[in-house]
Amino acid sequence: MNNVVTKVAVVGSGISGAVCASTLAKNGVSVTIFESARGPGGRMSQRRELTEDGKELLFDHGAPYFTASNTDVLGLILEWETRGLIAEWKENFGSFDFISKTFIDIEKEGSSKRYVGVPGMNSICRALCQEPGVESKFGVGVGRFEWLEDDNLWSLTGLDGQSLGHFKGVVASDKNTVSLRFTDVTGRPPPLDLNLVPGLAVKMKQIPVSSYFALMLAYEQPVSSIPVKGFSFKNSEVLSRAFCDSSKPGRTTTSERWVLHSTEDFAKGIIAQAGLQKPSNATLTKVAEELFQEFQNTGFNIPQPFFKKAHRWGSAFPLASIAREDKCLWDGGKRLALCGDFCVSPNVEGAILSGMAAASKFVDILSCL
């Protein structure tokens, strides 16, 4: 068991889990990441699409960029910049008012630093999941966390019922591991039974979340009528923001690619009709048309794209921060940490801070591991 008990399992490879795993590994803790998706990133993942004629298109269809003000996060950003994992996105951004059909604010280049992964937003998570001391298992969903009292260990079981191993500690960086939404979507109980950690149960019982739809568009020629590369919408019930994905550093420019985000209310309306299960192709096609129509309603000369596809982020943004000062939830007796943007703030910086905090809990008891 010597090689087993030194291990910590990290469930979820979004930025919070990836930062946590990397930090643990740098401090001598052996880490195994379990991720149900095919690759790392969570909302920082990059979507790969193929057109009918075989052309590859890449979209950052989740988080478009991130900002930072915390000293510890800025230190990580400097390291990532040095490694070529991120770059500053230096473009003009603005805010568009649907009533007046004008830009009411255009923020000049460089007035605030926006960072993006290079060549995709998932580049940071991918690199962190490949660092020495980190073993990553993609396409492996965790179906059950079990605490073995006699052995003082965690036992993890996959969604397929197969044993994933025993671990001295566990980090859950995906709120769905304890959320009733997991049951709504899959029909199964959440992987982590909160009765095992009653001290954390109250805080984790209900984390309200918002959903939104993303629309991916690709054009042969630049949409020259839009004067900025990213903007928010005011007074639209359908769209919240739009970004020219292909204008980011390190992206291919064989086509111009845009990503639009719906409003929370628009997504609520669709989900009320279609439910929380994976949206049908018919639903996504309808959503794509409605979002694109609103984009055209801006009054800009926006042509039909050669590629158009919608994606739903079902629990995209937490609407509460449940561990502000501690930055993560921690049960020292069972060596269980819960981390993510839902602990600090609903953005990339909040997720990074929470992952760092979870790792520090284990580093503090390193002698026990």
UniProtKB/TrEMBL annotation:
<dbReference type="Pfam" id="PF01593">
    <property type="entry name" value="Amino_oxidase"/>
</dbReference>
<dbReference type="GO" id="GO:0016491">
    <property type="term" value="F:oxidoreductase activity"/>
</dbReference>
<dbReference type="InterPro" id="IPR002937">
    <property type="entry name" value="Amino_oxidase"/>
</dbReference>
<dbReference type="InterPro" id="IPR036188">
    <property type="entry name" value="FAD/NAD-bd_sf"/>
</dbReference>
<protein>
    <recommendedName>
        <fullName>Amine oxidase domain-containing protein</fullName>
    </recommendedName>
</protein>
<dbReference type="Pfam" id="PF13450">
    <property type="entry name" value="NAD_binding_8"/>
</dbReference>
<feature type="domain" description="Amine oxidase">
    <location>
        <begin position="106"/>
        <end position="359"/>
    </location>
</feature>
